[in-house]
Q: What sequence folds into this?
């Protein structure tokens, strides 16, 4: 029986949207206020949906303790209360929330427990504000 | 095709306990949720139906009708109940969020299928605003894009 288990987390981080390949004027035109040299921050909501079989023993797709451990270790410990621009993942790409969403998708997908087998990351959704959010289903 | 979602809330208590396990294993796997005195949640039930809008009414389904179906089939049986002790479908299975979503599907699907033009697409059950489960029916064999990409990488 396939079902999905979802969980929402929060992390707070700063970023500056700036592309070295563009001129200062082009950066300002493309990113507006988000190009402020000193950066700015958000409380990001990270929503994760995991698909898999419901275990007859536990009634669960994945134990939330195990999912929390993956997200804590690989996502929150890495991105919470930091400047995203300083993370190696964002030296060659701008830390837009689109790119953050893709990177978190890659990290969670590659860190899912192997027990139970055949767990699948259905999507990662990153809410930058209450009005902006991004969802990644694959890479 | 339009997907229409109706939300409702119910409050219930539950605990997690596998009879075939020792007390120690139950505590290890289910943590505080294994407390046999139970605990409770304000659950949110989201029911999504899919169909084309009717030419005359413009409705996929009448929302009042859907509200009544949810009330009759699910909320009247689950609201302000102890799921383990008072709801028959959880006699033998754990009332986890996943199983609650599956049980809601089974309660709602016959009534919704009987209504012309609509099919039940998704059930989502929130146990808290941060914890939820989703069920898309027994036909769903293939998981999402994550499955394909795990295979490819």
A:
């Amino acid at each position: 029986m396939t079902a999905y288990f979802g969980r929402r987390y929060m992390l707070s981080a700063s970023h500056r949207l700036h592309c070295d390949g563009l001129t200062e004027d082009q950066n300002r035109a493309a990113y507006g206020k988000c190009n402020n040299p000193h950066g700015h921050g958000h409380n990001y909501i990270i929503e994760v949906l995991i698909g898999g079989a419901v275990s007859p023993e536990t009634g669960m797709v994945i134990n939330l303790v195990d999912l929390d451990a993956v997200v804590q270790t690989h996502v929150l410990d890495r991105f919470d209360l930091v400047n995203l621009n300083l993370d190696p993942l964002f030296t060659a790409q701008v830390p837009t929330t689109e790119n953050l969403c893709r990177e978190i998708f890659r990290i969670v997908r590659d860190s899912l427990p192997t027990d139970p087998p055949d767990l699948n990351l259905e999507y990662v959704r990153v809410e930058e504000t209450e009005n902006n959010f991004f969802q990644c289903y694959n890479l | 095709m339009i997907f229409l979602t109706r939300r409702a809330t119910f409050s219930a208590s539950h605990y997690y306990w596998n009879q075939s396990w020792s007390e120690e294993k139950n505590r290890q796997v289910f943590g505080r949720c294994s407390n046999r005195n139970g605990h409770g949640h304000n659950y949110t039930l989201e029911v999504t139906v899919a169909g084309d809008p009717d030419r005359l009414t413009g409705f996929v389904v009448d929302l009042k009708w859907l509200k009544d179906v949810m009330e009759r089939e699910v909320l009247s049986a689950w609201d302000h109940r102890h799921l383990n002790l008072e709801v028959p479908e959880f006699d033998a299975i754990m009332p986890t969020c996943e199983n609650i979503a599956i049980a809601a599907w089974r309660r709602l699907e016959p009534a919704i299928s009987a209504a012309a033009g609509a099919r039940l697409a998704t059930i989502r059950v929130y146990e808290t605003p941060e914890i939820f489960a989703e069920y898309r029916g027994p036909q769903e064999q293939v998981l999402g894009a994550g499955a394909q990409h795990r295979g490819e990488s």
In short: Chain B touches chain A at residues 16, 18, 21, 29-31, 93-99, 101-102, 124, 129-136, 138, 140-141, 143-150, 153 (CB under 8 Å). Helices of chain B lie at 23-30, 63-78, 83-86, 97-114, 145-152. Residues 113 and 119 of chain B are 6 Å apart (CA to CA).
